[in-house]
Amino acid sequence: MREILVYPHPLLRRRAEEVREIDGGVARLAGEMAEVMYKAPGIGLAAPQVGELRRLIVADIGHPEGRPELIVLVNPVVVESEGALRMEEGCLSLPGVRAEVERSARVLVKGYDLKERPMEIEAEGLLAVVLQHEIDHLEGRLFIDHLSRLKRDMIERRLRKRLREGD
Ligand code: NI
Fold first, then answer.
1. Active site residues
2. How far does residue 143's CA lie from ligand 1's centre (Å)?
3. CATH of the domain at 83
4. 74-116 pLDDT per residue, tens
5. What is the predicted pLDDT for the residue at 165?
6. pTM of the prediction?
7. The domain containing residue 28 runs over which residues?
8. In the chain, how many domains are there?
9. How much distance in Å is there from the Cα of 2 to the middle of ligand 1?
10. How many angstroms is it from 158 CA to the middle of ligand 1?
């Protein structure tokens, strides 16, 4: 099983490349990402988090409540957004860190599924947050980047300290 890269791994800060052909390798990677996400457990994962700088995300907000519905999006883009919403977020690449982040309340996301069919997802609430969070990963952006400088510095100090202590 693939490992989840943990902050401050440098690949988490890189921009991911557009997927040019949705072939068997992309489908296999999506499957491996879903496996890692369910095992964690988490509700979303972006390819850079497993060390692949490709524009691919998986999400499943139904999973924790036992209604799994896997979303796989290739080359996802937020094409419309409106409103604002504050929600507490975490990230599998920032274990133990949670903080409230402000994002758009509703988004329209476009991308492709694994059969190269165009996909459109209109999302609000938790799904809107997860999609924005995962698409951020494709730009090398983490949820802590949305926090105030002060708050981010505190979190980074705590993470580095924990890393030094090998915990
Ligand atoms: Ni994340």
1. 134
2. 7
3. 3.90.45.10
4. 999 999 999 999 999 999 999 999 999 999 999 999 999 999 9
5. 83
6. 0.94
7. 10-164
8. 1
9. 16
10. 18
